[in-house]
């Protein structure tokens, strides 16, 4: 005797396939598409990072090499490679590392303008907030050297700041304000710097305190 629970199983399967089969296939296809997209994205990222690493190594070799001829100046090649890193691989860590390394080398080569270009890129585009803050601090230091105090303050006041950089940021703000003759604001900035500095960092605290004392405490 046929089991009543299995007697109509083929018909039930046919009904299920008619009702849910297409949906199941669509869901499976969608899952496969997502999996392929994720794999493809990760592969693309890894490939971009590997290419950026090669270009970054080329930049480091150029920085450490002997000066080139006047036709192909060393700093020109440094700026070109760093810019290529930024344009092609700007979303990799090597681009921000390259920008800071290039800026330092260009500054040491007495090409402050090219150094500022690299620092501005890192301050605006670097993928890590720490690199953006370092770039802003170095850029503002260059602007202070050039006596571009308003521009230095604009750079210092832009973007977020983390506690690790708060003291140096406040100190540079104090330097710019003091140079502009804004003594009260400069004193306030130096006091902020002292509050942000670790009590064990005596050398830095003494230096800021000297600046504060020079303005009347």
UniProtKB/TrEMBL annotation:
UniProt subcellular location: Cell membrane
Annotated membrane topology: Single-pass type II membrane protein
Keywords from the UniProt entry: Cell membrane, Chaperone, Membrane, Transmembrane, Transmembrane helix
Highest taxon of source: Bacteria
GO cellular component terms attached to this protein's record: plasma membrane
TM segment ranges: 20-41
Signal peptide limits: none
Domain Ancillary SecYEG translocon subunit/Cell division coordinator CpoB TPR: 16-216
Pfam families with a match to the protein in the record: TPR_21 (PF09976)
GO molecular function term, any single one: protein-containing complex binding
Family statement drawn from the similarity comment of this UniProt entry: Belongs to the YfgM family.
Record's protein name: Ancillary SecYEG translocon subunit
Species: Candidatus Glomeribacter gigasporarum BEG34
Lineage start: Bacteria, Pseudomonadati, Pseudomonadota, Betaproteobacteria, Burkholderiales
